[in-house]
Structure formats: C-alpha cells, structure tokens
Amino acid sequence: MSGHPPRLVFADPGEAAELAALLGRLLRWEKAAAVRLRAAGDGVLGVFARPARFEVLAVRTARLTESAQLDATVSAGELLEGLEEASGSASVPAAVTGPPWAGLLPPRGGWRPVGELPYESVRSVAASVVAEFRRRSEALAPGERSREALDALAEEIWSRPLGGGTGLPLRAVHAAQALGMLRSRGPAPVAGPQGPPPVTGGRAVAVAVLAAGSWLRLRTPYGSVAVRGSGRGRPGLSVTPL
Prior knowledge:
Strand content: 25-35%
Number of strands: 13
Strand order of the largest sheet: 5-2-3-4-13-12-11-8
Radius of gyration: 18 Å
Number of helices: 5
C-alpha cells in the first residue's frame, strides 16, 4: 500500500466500538495478533481472526458507507490504534506477513442452515461447561495439575458436540463467549449485527448453526465463530478454558 493508508467508514458508527472490543480481546491473549481484512466491493467488510489458545476462527462483518476492494492481513494492534469510534472509521495499516491460518478462510457464500438454538440456552451451556472445567481441574491433586493433564481435560470437554444435531464442537461456544459474542442481552434489545438478538412475539431470535463444505459456523448477533471439520481429525487443543 502506498501513500496515505486507506480509510474505511462504517455505515453504523457503533461498529467501530464493536471491532475495537474484539481486537482488545484478541490482544489480551496475543500481543502480536493479526487479523485478515476482506472486502469484495459489495460494501461489506469481513474481519477474520484466530484467537490464541482456541482452535477456531472468529468472524466479524460490518457494512461500509462505500464499497471497497481490500484483502490484507494486518496487525490487530495497529488496526486498533487506527480505529476512531467517534467518527465510526478505521485506517487500514500496512500489511504484515500473515500466519498460516490466514490463508484458509471460511467461504463467503454457500452456507446452509443446520440448526437453531435459543440464545440464552447457548449462553447457559457455555457457562456450565466452563464451570465444569474449573471444578474438575481444581479437584486434581497438586501433583496431577500438569499442563498435559489440563490440556487433556480441555480437549475432552471442548470436543463434545453442542447438541441439537448440529455437530458443532463446544470449543466454538466457549470461544464465542470469550470473545463477547454471547454477552448478556440488555433491557432494550436492538436488532442488527452489533446489538442483542431482536425479539419477535416475545421470543429472542435463536443462535444459528450453519455449514458450508467442511466448515461449521456459530452465528450470533455479535459475530460468528467458524470451525473446520467439526473438530474431526484436528490436532489436540492447547487450551486452558478460563
């Protein structure tokens, strides 16, 4: 990129704050985190990240005021520095050498519905399994609480399917919770990608599970988490749920 860095303006200024929150969480786990930015001229920006210690990809989309052609992997920290919440815009920093995961992203289209689950039910599942990990890890004798033992426990818990016939591993739910995509709904629900689930007839819109090829995706009103291969044949986790 040459000259002045390109600037993206969000159609909803609140998207800048949402993206800043996501980047802040990524940087908390990995100071050198990178994100891949993609825009194909349809007025939609896709932000992809792989949070450290999770075997998933986080996906956040936002509408832009103008269409743009963009495909770059950038520093999450520099992108955060270039975000202006007041104006709802962001400067795109210089590209960096992308990590391996950035070369294999979920498809843009072709997603089909696999199932739907109540928003609050998915939040409850996330909370219960995190509590299970804490309870079982704390029950280990001091001499047994090795990194290998904790990783094995995490693999056992987070490789379980979410249920509902979706085949989605619980690691996707845990990541969504840790990234703020399963936050508590406020007293005044607002429809839209950055707000709580809209309510229709007194019932909150369900969290959706979608599939495309070998990918599964958990879509919430605050973003998505995608996993490849439903966790089958994947390397073991090095995740200690918090």
